[in-house]
Design a protein that fits this description.
single chain; alpha+beta; Hypothetical Protein Pfu-838710-001; CHAD domain; 9 strands; globular; inorganic triphosphate phosphatase activity; metal ion binding; CHAD_dom; CHAD_dom_sf
């Protein structure tokens, strides 16, 4: 089983790891420089291909990698061979030519990656410690990461080593390729990252689809972390929390068909992490409503304290270890090794997706009956079920991309988003007073609408109408 794990660390962590007993042997060292190519309109990026020429000593190696849905269009996802110089070779066998045809004439360098790599072997694991820079014109950014690649022996050893490294030099899960770093440097200033479509196709099994969904959620979460930690960005915190909720929904889907004793613990840990982010999110929601009210200063002080706590939680050994645990579970958890799960694991995903969506829709229909008369607790349960249905709909979106499915999918998702938004407004209405009580803040009008029966009645009527629209929408998966 081939397996790789990438971990990011800061400069101090790089020094600590390099000097640790974990890496006591003399390393092999190599200087690398890679040039990445694309067209002016980034045709390769849009087509999920990367093209680079990497120089190591006197050797130059050209590599083309396919990712996401594009990988399924070719027999293999990576092509690599030596070239004479820094000019790409794009003949009729190249997937680049297959993707963009005569547009290859416009391909030119777009950014470079310079890297000092040290390497060790630890049993059957290759350890690469990278100290690198990405350069795009006059823009530069640096990175430090350790890559662990399983070469032989028990694949679980890679995760045991990752935990040992984390104890020496705190690490965060690495999810960005060097190509992704370069393209992000080329783009505008970083903003919060929303969830991307999961790269599923009809040939996938239930097991491989759930792996893809889980890794997509981790990617979504991890990309938003720097903006939360370094800039206290409210939108990034919201997206990180959404990523955790999506992952918990994926676990719920998983739990319905697979036997795995690890899932309850992972779910508990994700619930803890979501709750830590939720305290800050509640304040951000209130601040949007307060304007320049008398309590704004108190809320800003509470926000600063909440984000302090978020930073501590996100960088804690508990959160860091959870990310490693999740990658290990997704890669080689009990659910993949237990013979009890073998039949469902090998089941084609389209039928499973349809059954999952049917079941979740049925629950939303039942829980939303007589919505305007529901108490707060019942309405909250409906809101959670609607979220699960929305996340599942988004998870399986790529399976319904045919023209005959596309319109029904969009209408269903739009109706679902409307319902979720209206239920969210109702939740914010009832949560405002509770948040202020928790913070010990009194006065002002931030929770004024919570006691306004007309405002609540209008929102309830709107939510009921959106629920009716959703239940009346055509089921695109049938």
């Amino acid at each position: 089983m081939e397996m790789e794990l990438k971990l990011e660390l800061d400069a101090a962590g790089m020094d600590a790891l390099g000097a640790s007993e974990l890496l006591a042997a003399a390393p092999g060292a190599v200087s690398q420089r890679a040039i990445y190519f694309d067209t002016p309109d980034q045709s390769l990026l849009r087509g999920a291909l990367s093209l680079r020429i990497r120089r190591e000593g006197d050797r130059r190696v050209q590599t083309v990698k396919a990712s996401g849905a594009t990988a399924g269009l070719f027999v293999r996802p990576e092509w690599e061979f030596e070239v004479a110089d820094d000019q790409p070779v794009l003949d009729h066998t190249s997937p680049v030519r297959a993707l963009i045809g005569t547009g290859t004439e416009a391909i030119a360098p777009v950014f470079a990656v310079e890297n000092e790599r040290r390497q060790w072997m630890d049993g059957g694991i290759e350890i690469s410690l990278d100290d690198g820079r990405v350069i795009a014109g006059d823009r530069k950014t640096s990175f430090a990461e350790v890559e662990l690649e399983h070469k032989s022996g028990d694949p679980a050893a890679i995760f045991a080593l990752a935990r040992k490294i984390d104890a020496v030099a705190p690490v965060q899960l690495g999810v960005m390729s060097k190509a992704e770093r370069g393209y992000r440097l080329l783009g505008p200033a970083l903003t919060a990252t929303k969830a991307h479509r999961v790269a599923l196709d009809e040939s996938m099994t239930v097991a491989s689809a759930l792996q893809a969904i889980g890794f997509a959620c981790l990617h979504h979460y991890r990309l938003n972390l720097p903006l939360v930690l370094d800039h206290r960005d409210a939108s990034a915190l919201h997206q990180a929390r959404v990523a955790i909720r999506r992952l918990r929904s994926a676990l719920t889907i998983h739990k319905s068909v697979f036997v795995d004793r690890t899932v309850p613990r992972l779910n508990t840990e994700l619930r803890w992490l979501a709750a830590e982010l939720g305290k800050a999110r509640d304040i951000d929601v209130l601040l949007k409503r307060t304007g320049q009210s008398a309590i704004r200063t108190q809320l800003l002080e509470a926000r600063a304290a909440a984000y302090d706590a978020v930073g501590i939680a996100l960088q804690s050994a508990r959160a860091r270890g959870l990310m490693i645990d999740l990658v290990e579970w997704l890669s080689m958890g009990e659910w993949l090794r237990d013979d009890t799960n073998a039949e469902v694991a090998a089941t084609p995903v389209p039928g499973f997706a349809a059954r999952t969506l049917r079941k979740l829709r049925k629950k939303v229909k039942r829980q939303g009956h007589g919505l305007e008369a529901l108490d707060d607790e019942s309405r909250h349960e409906l809101r959670k079920s609607a979220k699960k249905l929305r996340y599942a709909t988004e998870f399986f979106a790529a399976l319904y991309d045919r023209k005959r499915d596309r319109r029904g999918f969009k209408r269903f998702l739009s109706a679902l988003e409307d319902l979720q938004d209206s239920l969210g407004d109702l939740n914010d209405l009832s949560a405002a007073s509770e948040t202020l009580r928790r913070l010990g803040i009194t006065g002002g009008d931030a929770d004024g609408r919570a006691g306004d029966p007309k405002a609540k009645a209008a929102l309830l009527e709107q939510a009921a109408a959106h629920h009716d629209s959703l239940i009346g929408a055509k089921r695109f998966w049938t």
